[in-house]
């Protein structure tokens, strides 16, 4: 879905930022065992994918700006008919050049022999430490080897620079091709949420509702969710990252569904909360309206020129006002906001960057200040109210209600576009949909 020329453009852009006399080294994600000798489904590292589109494990991408024999090198597994019979085809170094645009490619087994030579004499090494400790160790080994050769006139690298800084700033601004994929992820996810609302009924297990959603994802070509699907009935909706999904959905409860598909490596992230039996109770509806108003206020503040924190602040104000109005908090709104009295009910932030990773990369602050919102950024807006089942400070009728409403928002030149607007969120729309 992302064309080869875009991967090439990204590498070029990154190398221009790195400058000559430098080298970038990025490792593919390792395979991870699930049980004994079976593995989790493989998912390429997002940075590695962003620069290469190369889907295999056991690979290392190297960029050497200005290198005459070629700036883009890939180390990867060699072709191996016996292994390929078991595990599927491999590109091999030839395929890496032919299909993935590498200027040069080598068997991964030659990494120890070739990479130190490429690093030699480069003043700056761009890499990401701390993601894969085994790879960090190897990197340090190569550097030490170069240091030991200093007396032979070999100059070891001087500076280690965090690659994240340059690369993640690039990833924060989505291109037209990326937005096309993200719109598709949003569209599939929207359909899945509508399906869940239609399928929901008392007595169903939470995992059965999750299955409805993931079925819709897979049938549309999104083979994995972008994160573990959350289906929390009743008080389970108050557990922010609830993923057990094991309980029965009860008549009279709400269910909170936080689910998004991953489509061609890009995530959607959507939450809807709706009544299991299709009708909100008075208390559920009252709190729901507060969360919805908070979400709408936050989305209204999501415009270029505002700061990252403005949507969050808007949601805090509306939620605090709502909690006061309904009697869950007592006091003056200004003071309650100041004292963060809303936090037991709304303990998280209003959103996060969204992209290849569901909690995507990119700085939220620049020079210690919340950064300005700019066109091309994509993020979620997801306020919530969660009344703990054992909160004795509020009337019993509120306890155990958990509500979050989450949409994915793209900042445009003159405002924003809600990528996930196709999922109903007005209470009456939801009730109408669930009535069939
Ligand atoms: N699904 C995780 C989140 O909303 O951030
Ligand atoms: Mn979510
Ligand atoms: Mn989210």
Description:
The protein has 13 helices and 21 strands. The chain is of the alpha+beta class and 436 residues long. The protein has two domains: 4-171, 3-Layer(aba) Sandwich (Creatine Amidinohydrolase, Chain A, domain 1); 173-435, Creatinase/methionine aminopeptidase superfamily (Creatine Amidinohydrolase). A six-stranded mixed beta sheet has the order 6-5-4-1-7-8, with helices on both faces. Strands 9-12-13 form a three-stranded antiparallel beta sheet. Helix 8 crosses helix 13. The radius of gyration is 25 Å and the shape is elongated. The two termini are 35 Å apart. One manganese (II) ion binds at residues 258, 269, 271, 406.
Largest sheet: 6 strands, mixed
The number of distinct helices, counting runs of at least 4 residues, comes to 13
CATH class of the largest domain: Alpha Beta
Please provide the count of β strands. 21
Strand order in the largest sheet: 6-5-4-1-7-8
**Helix content percent band:** 25-40%
Bound ions, cofactors and other small molecules, one mention each: glycine, manganese (II) ion
Number of domains: 2
Mean pLDDT over all positions: 97
Radius of gyration: 25 Å
Tell me the fraction of residues in β-strands, as a range. Answer: 15-25%
- Which structural category fits the helices and strands? alpha+beta
CATH topology of the largest domain: Creatine Amidinohydrolase
């Amino acid at each position: 879905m992302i064309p080869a020329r875009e991967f090439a453009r990204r590498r070029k852009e990154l190398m221009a930022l790195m400058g000559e006399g430098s080298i970038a080294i990025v490792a593919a994600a390792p395979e991870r065992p699930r049980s004994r000798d079976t593995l989790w489904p493989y998912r390429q590292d997002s940075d590695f994918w962003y620069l290469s589109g190369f889907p295999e494990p056991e690979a290392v991408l190297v960029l050497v700006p200005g290198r005459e024999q070629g700036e883009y090198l890939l180390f990867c597994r060699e072709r191996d008919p016996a292994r390929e019979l078991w595990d599927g085809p491999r590109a091999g170094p030839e395929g890496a050049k032919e299909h993935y645009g590498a200027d040069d490619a080598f068997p991964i087994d030659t990494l120890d022999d070739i990479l130190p030579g490429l690093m030699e004499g480069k003043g700056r090494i761009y890499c990401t430490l701390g993601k894969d400790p085994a790879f960090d160790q190897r990197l340090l080994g190569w550097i030490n080897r170069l240091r030991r050769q200093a007396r032979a006139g070999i100059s070891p690298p001087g500076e280690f620079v965090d690659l994240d800084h340059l690369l993640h700033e690039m990833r924060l601004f989505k291109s037209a091709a990326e937005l096309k994929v993200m719109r598709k992820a949003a569209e599939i996810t929207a359909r899945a949420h509508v399906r869940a609302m239609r399928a929901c009924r008392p007595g169903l297990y939470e995992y059965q509702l999750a299955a409805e959603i993931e079925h819709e994802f897979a049938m549309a070509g999104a083979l994995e969710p972008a994160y573990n699907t959350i289906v929390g009935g009743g008080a389970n909706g108050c557990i922010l990252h609830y993923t057990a999904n094991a309980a029965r959905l009860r008549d009279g409860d709400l269910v909170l569904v936080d689910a998004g598909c991953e489509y061609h490596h890009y995530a959607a992230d959507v939450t809807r909360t709706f009544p299991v039996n299709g009708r909100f109770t008075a208390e559920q509806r009252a709190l729901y309206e507060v969360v919805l108003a908070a979400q709408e206020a936050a989305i209204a503040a999501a415009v270029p020129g505002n700061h990252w924190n403005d949507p969050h602040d808007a949601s805090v104000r509306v939620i605090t006002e709502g909690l006061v109005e309904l009697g869950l908090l007592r006091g003056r709104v200004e003071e309650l906001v100041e004292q963060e009295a809303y936090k037991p009910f709304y303990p998280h932030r209003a959103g996060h960057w969204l992209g290849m990773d569901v909690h995507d990369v990119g700085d939220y602050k620049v020079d210690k200040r919340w950064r300005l919102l700019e066109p091309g950024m994509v993020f979620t807006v997801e306020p919530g109210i969660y009344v703990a089942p054992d909160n004795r400070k509020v009337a019993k009728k509120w306890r155990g209600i958990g509500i979050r409403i989450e949409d994915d928002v793209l900042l445009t030149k003159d405002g924003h576009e809600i990528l996930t607007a196709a999922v109903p969120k007005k209470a009456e729309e939801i009730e109408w949909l669930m009535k069939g």
